[in-house]
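Quarterly update from the structural biology core.
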Amino acid sequence: MVGYIMFLASNDPKVRYGAAFIIASGAFSLGALSSANVAANIVSDTARSSAIGTNVMFGNIGSLVATWSFLPSDSPDYRIGNSLNLATSSSILICSVASLFWMNMDNKKRDRINVEKKLAHLSQKQIQDLDWRHPGFRWKP
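Predicted structure, tokenized:
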């Protein structure tokens, strides 16, 4: 977000050059970190594969949107494309913080549950099929 703000707020080439490095370091690390978070929080192999694929698909949709956001008529500042990227980065931050709070709240709620008592009436197959609904499961923020 800082890089996009710097880029939009300044016309100085040195500031924009620095902003490009900040943008790249944030954007490229986010892809790996989001895939790692998805993989860490999905229990079954099949669901994990599907979730990682879905995560990558949504990440790649950004390339499709960028194709139509950085228009030649908007050059050299590309305010439309950079403003959309700033808005998207802000949305990702808000969703990430909300998810973090929800994961912590749900983990605290799960800490109060008696796991053995909750699973006592279930068969082994039913317990295996619980996935993230298993009372012993904890989110990894």
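The chain is about 70% helix and 0% strand.
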